[in-house]
């Protein structure tokens, strides 16, 4: 606005100079007219604008005073009911931003600058309960002495004495941290560290320097996962109290019971596939393996799969894929998802036969307690945002198609045998 005033003042000053010269005045007289008229116009316009702006501000101030008039007497207004703690808790659960503020985060990094930066970025998304540690041993001590478990851990990979991957593996062995979100922070983005981090139990992975928006999204995702874990835990407790069967045992528990370290969380496996790039992405493929349900009149697609069967299938899958670089997640309802790599896609029938053969061998009776259906392998798309979700859905659908085909074939053979 000031530049506009100067431009207008200069223009009017030039007009006065031209008028003075046309009327026969000397050059110096015309120059004086230019300076006086131009400067006067600029000052006058600035003064007028100031007075107008001040008038508007005073009007707004008076308006606010009218709006914020004193409240009605207390005798005429009924006091609100006292707020109970339960009401506050329910409100925080319903409001996403409030829920993010309540998340407890532990950030571990040997760089003081990062430990100073992380709380500031986290505060931008409403996450203010941040505890920092400068090393792995210090972090373990903080975790051991914490009254309540942390909801999210941010671990730098490259630290002296104990790196972030070792710290992640130790934390995952703790009962209260098997499903906690663990985000790895590092300037290293090569595939070797990516694989090691996720195999150690990382939930997600981000590189330094931080992208503020992306980092904020990671924290919001961690909060959402923490809420989901809390809900699932209480639903499982309620189901156990009612004697219901629950087959969503969780990847963490299944990995521990089956002694298969390649089993990681479902969302972690999606994040892993999302981070792949270059040749690693070009050779990656996704397969789904479904535990077949017992055929019969009581067959229910949502019925519980025995934990013994899940452990047997997980170990057989590990035997088949052990010599290749792969990771696996349990998707619930008797379904596993595998991410591996290869220049050519494996044959689903060959993988299914190999898994079935290993299950038969380990059962010791020739006939295992369960059978599996393996869907056709799919390549993930190039688009990063929806790559993992689409690939996983396609793989699971293909495994479902294979299982449905086997059930139809079984029923047809049964009818033939009975003479129908």
UniProtKB/TrEMBL annotation:
The keyword RNA-binding does not apply. Gene3D superfamilies: 3.40.50.2300. GO terms for biological process: phosphorelay signal transduction system. The modification 4-aspartylphosphate is found at residue 156. It comes from the Bacteria. Keywords: Membrane, Phosphoprotein, Transmembrane, Transmembrane helix. The chain crosses the membrane at residues 7-25, 31-52. Pfam families: Response_reg. The keyword RNA-binding does not apply. SUPFAM superfamilies: CheY-like. Residues 104-223 form the Response regulatory domain. PANTHER family: RESPONSE REGULATORY DOMAIN-CONTAINING PROTEIN, STRESS RESPONSE REGULATOR PROTEIN 1. This is Response regulatory domain-containing protein. It comes from Seohaeicola zhoushanensis.
């Amino acid at each position: 606005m000031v530049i506009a005033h100067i431009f207008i003042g200069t223009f009017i000053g030039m007009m006065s100079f031209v008028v003075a010269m046309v009327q026969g005045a000397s050059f110096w007289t015309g120059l004086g007219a230019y300076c006086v008229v131009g400067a006067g116009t600029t000052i006058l316009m600035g003064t007028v604008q100031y007075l107008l702006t001040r008038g508007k501000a005073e009007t707004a101030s008076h308006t606010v005073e009218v709006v914020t008039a004193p409240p009605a007497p207390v005798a005429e207004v009924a006091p609100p009911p006292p707020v109970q703690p339960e009401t506050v808790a329910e409100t925080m659960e319903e409001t996403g931003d409030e829920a993010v503020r309540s998340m407890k985060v532990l950030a571990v990094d040997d760089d003081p600058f990062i430990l100073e930066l992380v709380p500031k970025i986290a505060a931008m998304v409403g996450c203010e309960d941040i505890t920092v540690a400068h090393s792995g041993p210090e972090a373990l001590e903080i975790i051991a002495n914490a009254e309540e478990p942390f909801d999210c851990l941010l671990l730098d990979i490259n630290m002296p004495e104990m790196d972030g991957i070792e710290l992640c593996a130790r934390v995952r062995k703790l009962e209260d941290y098997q499903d906690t979100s663990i985000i790895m922070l590092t300037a290293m983005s090569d595939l070797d560290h990516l694989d090691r981090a996720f195999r150690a139990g990382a939930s997600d992975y981000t590189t330094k320097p931080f992208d503020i928006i992306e980092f904020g999204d990671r924290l919001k995702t961690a909060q959402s996962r923490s809420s989901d874990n809390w809900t699932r835990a209480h639903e499982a407790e309620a189901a156990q109290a009612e004697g219901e069967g629950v087959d969503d045992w969780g990847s963490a528990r299944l990995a521990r019971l089956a002694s298969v370290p390649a089993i990681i969380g479902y969302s972690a496996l999606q994040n892993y596939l999302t981070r792949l790039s270059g040749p690693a992405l070009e050779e990656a493929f996704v397969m789904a393996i479904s535990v077949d349900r017992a055929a019969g009149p009581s067959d229910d697609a949502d019925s519980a799969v025995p934990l013994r069967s899940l452990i047997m299938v997980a170990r057989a899958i590990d035997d088949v894929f052990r010599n290749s670089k792969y990771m696996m997640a349990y998707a619930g309802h008797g379904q596993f998802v595998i991410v591996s790599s290869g220049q050519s896609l494996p044959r689903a029938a060959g993988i299914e036969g190999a898994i079935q053969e290993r299950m038969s061998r380990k059962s010791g009776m020739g006939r295992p307690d369960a059978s599996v259906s393996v869907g056709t392998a799919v390549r993930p798309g190039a688009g990063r945002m929806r790559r993992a979700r689409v690939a996983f859905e396609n793989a699971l659908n293909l495994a479902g198609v294979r299982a449905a085909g086997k059930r139809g074939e079984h029923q047809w053979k049964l009818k033939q045998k009975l003479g129908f």
